[in-house]
Amino acid sequence: MTIWNLGSINADHFYHVPHIPAPGETLACSSLRTGLGGKGANMSVAAARAGAHVAHIGAVGPEGGWARDRLMEYGVDTRHIAQVAQPTGHAIIAVADGDGENTILLFGGANHAIDEAMVGAALSSASTGDTFLFQNETSAQGYAAETAAKLGLRVAYAAAPFDAAAARAALPFLDFLILNEIEAEQLGAAVGKPVSEMGVTDVIVTLGGAGCDWYHRGEKQSFSAVPVTPVDTTGAGDTFTGYVLAGLDRGMSMAQGISLAMRAAALKVTRAGTADVIPDLAEVEAFASAPDKGRG
To answer: Which sites bind K(+) (predicted)?
Structure first.
């Protein structure tokens, strides 16, 4: 089966700072790194590294060939990544040296130049039973979700960065919803009911260091996080999402997929960077068999 991911592709610029800057504050950075990122690219890399066949639907600018090449190197099918006139998206990420927390500024660029024709051309190759994944960093989301649902794909939505209107519009087409605790509260306030009662078969609410809650048809099961000493939390949620969906695609139960994804996300936060440092399946399995390694 295939995971079709309509997702953003960014150049991530990491600035390491003593702490997350306050409004009006100027900070000196201790280092600067640039790598592949974007929630979509991160999820595609994670799912591919977890053993799934992933086809990325997206766009880069005239200077963005390096990003498409990098995705291909990581095992992602890049045939449906278009080159457009707008510049490749990018993110400015401040990472606190003390605890790995971050703050992010996004420039959408080419990610917002994806049109319905691009999505339709890609999904014309999809098969019933494939998975369709999307987030809130591209255009054409509504059309894509409706089209995927009509084609019989499992429709999965990572509701970030949170947008109430986009999330409400997506709900009728969803089989799987994943969002963090704050996003769950925001969506609940927008819809007037908790996420467990929104009619989506499977909902995962991630809780950071506290793990996650999984709601299957409203029934809740909680999972604990794997304790580690974080270096950089950027991309941890994307790693988790990619691994969960890859696990389901490979025939795992949801509980098995979540447990695998918890270990992958834990290993990811011990590394600085985003897509370029997402662990592969062999690394995650080795990490699981050495429970004290990299943990604090």
So the answer is: 232, 234, 268, 271, 273
Active site residues: 238
0.85 cut: is pTM over it? yes
* DSSP output for 149-194: HHTTPEEEEE--S--HHHHHHHGGG-SEEEEEHHHHHHHHHHHTS-
Q: Is 102 labelled a binding residue?
A: no
User: Which of 1-5, 200-204, 238-242, 286-290 comes out lowest in average pLDDT?
Assistant: 286-290
241 Cβ neighbours under 8 A, 6+ residues apart: 43, 46, 133, 156, 158, 178, 261
Could you give the CA distance from residue 212 to residue 199 in angstroms, rounded to a whole number?
Answer: 19
Residue 150: partners with Cβ closer than 8 Å, 6 or more residues away: none
d(CA 267, CA 180): 19
Query: pLDDT of 90-104, one tens digit each?
Result: 999 898 987 788 888
- Which H helix or E strand runs over 11? strand 10-17
Say yes or no to pLDDT of 293 above 50. no
| Alpha-carbon distance values, 181 to 91, 133, 187, 224, 259 (Å) | 23, 20, 10, 15, 19
In Å, how far from its chain's centre is CA 170?
A: 17
Please tell me whether 168 is known to bind a ligand: no
Give the integer Cα–Cα distance in Å for 10 and 202: 29
Q: Is 38 annotated as a binding residue?
A: yes
CA distance 271 to 283: 13
Q: Is 3.40.1190.20 the CATH classification of the domain at 2-289?
A: yes
Determine whether the annotation assigns residue 271 to a binding site. Answer: yes
Are 295 and 227 in contact, with CB atoms under 8 Å apart? yes
* Residue 122 CB-half CA count within 13 A: 32
Residue 52 has pLDDT above 90, yes or no: yes
Q: Annotated binding residue at 229?
A: no
